[in-house]
Amino acid sequence: MKKCVIVLLLLGASLFVHAQTPVQTPDLSQVTQVAPAYFGPNAFPVPDVPEARLTGEFRAELSGDLFWGQGVPFADDLTYGPRFMVQLPLWTKRAALTVWMPIVEWWSYSPAIAARRRLTDFPDGGKGIDSGDVYVSTDFHVLTEKGWRPDILIRAVLKTASGNTYGQARYYDAPGYFFDASIGKSLYLNGFLKELRLVVSGGFLCWQTDRGRQNDAWQYGVLGIVDTRAFRLSAQLAGYSGWEGDGDRPLTVKGVVEVPIGAFAPFAAFEYGLHDYPFSHLRAGVKYRLKKFGDSRK
């Protein structure tokens, strides 16, 4: 398993070195507009805040996404398609490899959206089908909750440059990565209400914008979880702040409800862009959990 992790990291490093983007100007005084406000919703997503713990379980998730643009008619800006996520425990319940991606997306946008995103080569809008970027994360549960001590989770995430259609601003033809640390603390109860949990997260996110520079961003988020014997609710406020200051400071709010049924949990989520992420987002699907090392929670 360790060899598999090393191979994945080497593969990611090679992608980072060789991927290029059509943007050519490394002038730091000129903004690139390679940023969330000017691209499709899957190009620069705001990372989910993790729970700050690992449970030693194999986890998988299959869902469908629907995005629509804000402030325009519904049909003017649409993106939809399936997504998957899988989390594989490694040599211990305190380490995991997580992979996720939008498998494929169908998209369309109107002339009004073309003007908003400054797509001068496609003033009449467009539509198409694309595959998405792959995210590979190595997660480490470095400190477990005990008494007043919180859970602490760190992760290192690589984004490949596998997404297509840079010219119509669906994805950007360059890799990215982020590192973050999350701190979580729970209050465990014995009645219908089982757990209240709060997580705060902070880190560093980076993506290449042309051959001579990159955009560096501070990443941040807060997550609240309410777990009951019948359902589970969570809400997060998260975003990141790039240095260019032109469309690269997305902030979103997201709510999720799931209903555990044995090893499965159907769920629905809604995300709303508050700043530099001009989309509303609905996700519905099912999660699957298979215990391997045992649950690290109390």
What's the arrangement of secondary structure elements?
Elements lengths: L1 H17 L38 E13 L7 E13 L5 E8 L1 E6 L1 H6 L9 E6 L3 E9 L7 E9 L16 E13 L4 E18 L2 E16 L3 E11 L8 E8 L5 E12 L3 E13 L7
Antiparallel strand pairs: 1-2, 1-14, 2-3, 2-4, 3-6, 4-5, 6-7, 7-8, 8-9, 9-10, 10-11, 11-12, 12-13, 13-14
Describe this structure in words.
It is built from two helices and 14 strands. It has 298 residues and is mainly beta. It has a single domain, classed as monomeric porin ompg (Porin). Strand 10 (213-228) and strand 11 (232-242) form a beta hairpin. The protein is globular and about 60 Å long. Mean pLDDT is 88; it is low at 1-25 and 294-298.
Q: Which features does this protein show?
A:
298 residues; mainly beta; Porin; globular; disordered N terminus; disordered C terminus
Question: Could you provide a short overview of the structure?
Answer:
The chain is mostly beta strands and 298 residues long.
Count of alpha and pi helical runs: 2
> Please, how many domains?
1
Strand order of the largest sheet: 1-2-3-6-7-8-9-10-11-12-13-14
Overall radius of gyration: 19 Å
What's the CATH H-level homologous superfamily?
Answer: monomeric porin ompg
Distance between the termini: 28 Å
Number of distinct beta strands: 14
| CATH T-level fold name | Porin
Largest β-sheet summary = 12 strands, antiparallel, barrel
CATH class: Mainly Beta
Q: What's the overall geometry?
A: globular
Helices and strands, in order, run as HEEEEHEEEEEEEEEE
